[in-house]
Amino acid sequence: MRLILFDDRSAENLLPLSFTRPVGDLRVGILTIAEKWEKHMALAGIKSQGASFLTRDYLQVKYPTEAADDNLLINGSLLPDNELLSAIKELQTGKALKQGQVLLAARCSREDLTGFQEEAILEKATEYGEEISLVDYPWKIFRLNGQEISADFDLLTAGRQSASLKDVQVFGDHPVFVEDGFKGSHFTLNTSNGPIYLGHDSEIMEGSVIRGPFALCEGAIIKLGTKIYGPTTLGPACRGGGEMNNVVMQANSNKGHDGFLGNAVLGEWCNIGADSNNSNLKNNYSEVKVWNYPKGRFTRTGLQFCGLIMGDHSKCGINTMFNTGTVVGVSANIFGAGFPRNFIPSFSLGGAEGMSTYRMVKVLETASLVMERRGIAVSEADRQILQWVFDHTEQYRKW
Length: 399
What we know:
Number of helices: 9
Structural class: alpha/beta
Shape: globular
Largest sheet: 13 strands, parallel
CATH topology of the largest domain: UDP N-Acetylglucosamine Acyltransferase, domain 1
Radius of gyration: 21 Å
Strand content: 25-35%
Number of strands: 32
């Protein structure tokens, strides 16, 4: 059986994070959504090959759909739990589960997948009445990060022995799990509010103080004297420094210096300059609104705390100041004094004093240099995706 995670309308609401990836490839907790489903299905005894994606046409060049005669389709924004797994395990070919107008899962043949129509399947699907968790807006990533760190922690560490820590102060009731290759000593871990996971070949430098729930993924590094409040995740090969509170960094992104980042999500290949800060609370303590692409306007989040949402390949210079609820698109280059606008379109160059278009030739030049530092080349698929995003976000660049 093939596991396929499909994008629904949440892919539009999750922009700019979903400009460059399927929804199921987003990280929340320790794992990506696709990785969660792979591991949960294996534990549930559901034999399937690794996950692929049914996503928008321009992303298929990097994330192709790999179908079989028997396919299990799962909503890419849906987080797994045991009750849901039990219901999905009982699905027969041609059957589906929904909750309201959200299609949760469907089992179909290769022929049915070819003409996949979400609306038609919804009409015949069985209603699922238990509580579910959907990552259907960007702020859901940091809102759900605590529960997902705990769930992923249990999933990854069950029946396994942690490596040891030396010369580290640890206190609190929740566990710490250390993978092989971790480096670091003379720092403090507080697990009073949740577990702490330290991934393969990750590192925490001395003087750092970290409160769980917290996940440091493979190859990620915490710099000297960093202060982190959970629930926070640093994805693979990320760099963290300064002060962070309830942050999720997808992978390969840097916030290596002093400055505050809170209630925020960074995509891949982002960089936050030294002494940069974001506001996560309005001066009047009112509800935060953020830019929503399908509505074409700022929309309510229901949150009092909401900081920065930044798409892949975006950067900011030193001393950048982001207002509460700022949304930055893909491949933006932000610098200069003052507060830039709350919505910064993709491929923007500049800041509060004015913006211009960040030309594609310069974008690719920078991306190549940045990715080479991690030993990764910009692929032709990456180039095509960035070009598509550039072409289809022109309407927002009104200088």
